[in-house]
């Protein structure tokens, strides 16, 4: 009989096969992904900034609808702990990758902090009021330069 199918469709994998295939595909595409980043001529930072209104609207809609909270609570703290532990190697990798940026920012920040500390050292000390004044001077000095020392 024409058009009568009696077999079984087998194009849908098991969840484990799907996960294995996805992971292998992503792992295999790492070089292609890196090359795509290197080759792009688009201003990705500018595009991200241009889309900030939509980003904010989408985030707010997600929070307002309860979708964000539901997603956070779906796995809860145990899921967060497990996923964070699984990515622990990324922590060290990120520190290594960001070391030069840290040094560039610190090259401006540390001398400023040393100057600020010297001026605070010259302030009166020995009382609670003097201690509060010294701490306040540190906070005020750091707030005054917030965001100025970036790589």
SSE blueprint:
Layout (H helix, E strand, L loop, with lengths): L14 H14 L1 H10 L4 H7 L1 H14 L1 H20 L1 H34 L6 H17 L7
Helix pairs in contact: 6-7
Structural overview:
The N and C termini lie far apart (72 Å). This protein has helices spanning 15-28, 30-39, 44-50, 52-65, 67-86, 88-121, 128-144. By secondary structure, the protein is an all-alpha fold. The mean pLDDT is 88. Among the domains are: 44-86, no CATH class; 101-151. It contains 7 helices and no strands.
Gross morphology is elongated
Mean pLDDT: 88
* Spans where pLDDT lies below 50 across 5 or more residues: none
User: Secondary-structure element sequence?
Assistant: HHHHHHH
Characterize the largest beta sheet: strand count, sense, and whether it forms a barrel: none
Task: Output the radius of gyration.
Answer: 27 Å
Distance between the termini: 72 Å
Structure summarized in a few sentences:
By secondary structure, the chain is mainly α.
List keywords for this structure.
mainly alpha, single chain, 7 helices, 151 residues
């Amino acid at each position: 009989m024409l058009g009568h199918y009696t077999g079984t469709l087998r194009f849908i994998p098991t969840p484990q096969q799907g996960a294995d295939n996805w992971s292998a595909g992503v792992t295999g595409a790492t070089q292609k992904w890196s090359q795509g980043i290197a080759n792009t001529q688009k201003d990705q930072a500018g595009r991200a900034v241009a889309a900030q209104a939509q980003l904010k609207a989408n985030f707010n809609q997600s929070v307002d609808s309860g979708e964000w909270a539901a997603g956070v609570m779906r796995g809860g703290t145990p899921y967060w702990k497990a996923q964070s532990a699984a990515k622990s190697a990324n922590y060290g990798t990120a520190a290594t990758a960001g070391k030069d940026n840290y040094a560039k920012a610190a090259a401006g920040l540390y001398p400023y902090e040393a100057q600020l500390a010297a001026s605070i050292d010259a302030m009166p000390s020995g009382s609670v009021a003097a201690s509060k004044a010294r701490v306040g001077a540190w906070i005020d000095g750091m707030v005054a330069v917030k965001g100025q020392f970036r790589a």
